[in-house]
Amino acid sequence: MMDKETFTFNNGVSIPSIGFGTWQIPNEEAYDSVTMALKNGYTHIDTALAYKNEENVGKAIHDFDVKREDIFITSKLPANIKGYDETLEAFNKTMTHLGVDYLDLYLIHAPWPWDDIGKECTEGNIQSWKAMEALYKEGKIKAIGVSNFEIKHLKPILETCDIVPLANQIPFYIGKDQENLLAFCKEHSIVVEAYSPLATGDILNLPELKEMAEKYDVTVAQLAIRYCLEKDTLPLPKSTHEKRIIENKQLDFKIFKEDVTKLDKIKDVRK
């Protein structure tokens, strides 16, 4: 049993404190992977329209013997889609793919298109946010948020919104702690979700992590995912291997403060 089973958004909605990520899992593998996750106790599944696997993510959830209200489902508005009507259209596609009548969390996937990173899209993001606020008020989404937003992207939303973003899903792992962004989100009661908590595998062979993992008698992956929780972020590990899916959720240990400090000092291996 982990010490923190859920995070709570500032609207009172609870989200399980570890999610199963499905980024880079092809649609044909998503059914088996999500089924394995559900079978091994995951109740929080994260997908996106851009992942092109929503159909099999939804099918796995439907086919598993679980009530809809006992599963937390996140999806995302594609990064290249900006605007009010465009957002509503994309949302409806996601709902059709997943086969559900509401989403637990819906995020703007990025502040700019992935093929034009840095593009100025402030007005488009504001209009997309207004559409998401409308869907939220209609009860079609329990919580709304953003992903990959830096402070400069969050500020225009905060200045114009009726509903403050409840979550910001960002790359967060040992070596990339995003301290300033984390502090800003905390100040505005925005839950930070940590995607790629293993740096897509790039940190798994670091000698200092191997040594520390041995000290705690855990895997490097478990150490890295637990680090995210120690930093008050919600990790979204993903795997297609059942052994790792199981291990990634076995996090009922604490990292000593002095060891968290050591991990904070590690340089980003992906720069």
Description:
Residues 18-267 form the NADP-dependent oxidoreductase domain. One of its GO terms (molecular function) is oxidoreductase activity, acting on the CH-OH group of donors, NAD or NADP as acceptor. The active site is at 51 (proton donor). The structure is a single chain. The chain is an alpha/beta fold and 271 residues long. It has a domain at 16-165: TIM Barrel. Helix content is 40%, strand content 16%. The protein has ten helices and ten strands. The chain has helices at residues 27-39, 54-63, 84-98, 122-137, 151-160, 179-187, 207-216, 220-230, 242-247, 257-264; strands at residues 6-8, 14-16, 20-21, 44-46, 72-77, 103-108, 141-147, 167-171, 191-195, 234-236. An eight-stranded parallel β-sheet has the order 3-4-5-6-7-8-9-10. The chain is globular. The mean pLDDT is 96.
Fill in the keyword field for this structure.
271 residues, alpha/beta, TIM Barrel, eight-stranded parallel beta sheet, two-stranded antiparallel sheet, 10 strands
Topology (SSEs and partners):
Blueprint: E1 6-8, E2 14-16, E3 20-21, H1 27-39, E4 44-46, H2 54-63, E5 72-77, H3 84-98, E6 103-108, H4 122-137, E7 141-147, H5 151-160, E8 167-171, H6 179-187, E9 191-195, H7 207-216, H8 220-230, E10 234-236, H9 242-247, H10 257-264
Parallel strand pairs: 3-4, 4-5, 5-6, 6-7, 7-8, 8-9, 9-10
Antiparallel strand pairs: 1-2
Helix pairs in contact: 1-2, 2-3, 3-4, 4-5, 7-8
